[in-house]
Amino acid sequence: MASYSVLLTKSAAKELESVPTKDRQRIVTKIGSLARNPRPVGVEKLSGDEKYRIRQGDYRILYEIVDAELIVTVVRVGNRREVYRR
């Protein structure tokens, strides 16, 4: 199985910086694991969008997958109360 490239949007990187340090390390590890398996156990496809989400504690990681180019793009990282709001 080929490895995917994981990219973060500028806004996702900024949101990740605002996460407390103890949670940030777990989130970064979870994002890194998307390179090996972009659809891990527990992933959910969001209705209405071509996005997926995984959970890490109280935080959610929203991302898009381009299978043809083997790219995973993280678009949002945030607390579950706020991450789905536009």
Q: Can you give me a brief rundown of this structure?
A:
Helices cover 24% and strands 34% of the residues. By secondary structure, it is of the alpha+beta class.
Provide an overview of this structure.
The chain has 86 residues and is an alpha+beta fold. The chain has a single domain, classed as RelE-like (YaeB-like fold), CATH 3.30.2310.20. It contains two helices and five strands, in the order E-H-H-E-E-E-E. A five-stranded mixed sheet has the order 1-5-4-3-2. A hairpin with a 2-residue loop joins strand 3 and strand 4. The mean pLDDT is 92.
Descriptive labels:
24% helix, 86 residues, 2 helices, YaeB-like fold, globular, alpha+beta
Secondary structure layout plus pairing:
Layout: E1 5-8, H1 10-17, H2 21-33, E2 44-45, E3 51-56, E4 59-66, E5 71-79
Parallel strand pairs: 1-5
Antiparallel strand pairs: 2-3, 3-4, 4-5
